[in-house]
TrEMBL record:
The chain crosses the membrane at residues 6-23, 102-124, 130-148, 281-301. Residues 168-295 form the Type II secretion system protein GspF domain. It comes from the Bacteria. It is found in: Cell membrane. It comes from Thermopolyspora flexuosa. Coiled coil: none annotated. It is a multi-pass membrane protein. The keyword Cell membrane applies. One of its GO terms (cellular component) is plasma membrane. This is Type II secretion system (T2SS) protein F.
Length: 306
């Protein structure tokens, strides 16, 4: 009874997908409001241009597949902001990410015929459900693998970016102490970093694009912080906005923020060192236990008469 039910379920799924392809769903309210805001230029305040450029080059097939999946997400209001922020920090496009997930899930479905052919060559009797459910499980695992990889890589890059922000705050405070204005201090601070420092290059790119977009440098830093989910940039944007609006003195505050970032980074490094020391201790204990078992095994077998 299971095989006819499974065949009927697959047939029904195929008919459902065919109907959805012939009669696509109408765009949701979120997608319509987003399109209206994009057409109006966000209420006349200028277009919301992304300040982080992607370095990923996609083939025509992956780009087309990713764009269709992105429209599918937008039509249903799935924003996935955390993944978008991680991808922006890594310099990867959301469309390429979605295409990778779909292609990996499709490759996971190939486990079904491969496993069935392998079991047939071995001459083992098997039920068709085993390769099928194995393929479904592999497709689900492969579908979520890019999320894990992106989150891991973005966490490491965000940690490095915070380290660069601490140095950037010190440089901005030094330039402000030299009598420069806020825009000049920001540009001079990012011009100190070499081209090999990717974090400074991102900040320099955002400040350069701010002139093209028509926003202030501190607003560009705030948008960059929103796009890559770095709270330190958002706090710096708010502090510099106070300087521009109210004439507040922020040089000492920037130095204090930089010192706080360094202390936080030092605490994280010490915590990671402690975790690694504990893991090494556990590995040494397991190695010693295995060696003791190896030494005592012959004597134990002889005493038991085996």
């Amino acid at each position: 009874m299971a095989e006819p039910a499974l065949f009927g379920a697959m047939l029904g799924l195929g008919v459902f997908l065919l109907i959805r392809a012939l009669f696509p769903a109408r765009p949701g309210l979120v997608a319509r409001i987003g399109a209206l805001d994009a057409a109006r230029g966000e209420g006349g305040s200028g277009p919301r241009t992304r300040l982080v450029a992607t370095d990923e080059r996609l083939s025509a097939f992956r780009r087309g597949l990713g764009e269709r999946l992105a429209r599918f997400y937008a039509a249903r209001g799935w924003e996935v902001r955390s993944i978008r922020a991680d991808l922006a920090l890594l310099g990867r496009s959301f469309e390429g990410f979605l295409a990778t997930k779909a292609l990996l899930a499709a490759s996971g479905l190939l486990f079904s015929p491969l496993l069935a052919g392998w079991l047939a060559l071995l001459g083992w009797g098997f039920s068709p459900q085993v390769p099928l459910w194995t393929a479904v499980l592999a497709a689900v695992v492969f579908f979520f693998l890019p999320d894990l990889q992106v989150r891991r890589d973005a966490a490491a890059r965000r940690r490095d970016f915070r380290h660069a922000v601490g140095a950037f705050l010190d440089l901005v405070a030094m330039n402000l102490a030299g009598g420069r204005g806020v825009p000049e201090a920001l540009m001079m601070a990012v011009s100190v970093g070499d081209d090999g420092n990717w974090a400074m290059a991102r900040i320099r790119e955002a400040l350069g694009n701010a002139r093209i977009v028509g926003i202030t440098p501190w607003q560009a830093l705030g948008r960059l912080g929103d796009e890559i989910d770095v709270d330190e940039l958002r706090d710096l944007s708010a502090a510099l906005a106070l300087v521009a609006d109210d004439g507040a003195k922020v040089r000492a505050s920037l130095s204090a923020r930089a010192a706080t970032l360094r202390r936080r980074e030092l605490a994280e490094i010490e915590g990671q060192a402690g975790e690694r020391s504990q893991s090494m201790l556990v590995a040494q204990l397991l190695l010693c236990a295995g060696f003791l078992v190896f030494l005592s095994f012959p004597a134990a077998m002889k005493m038991l008469g085996v």
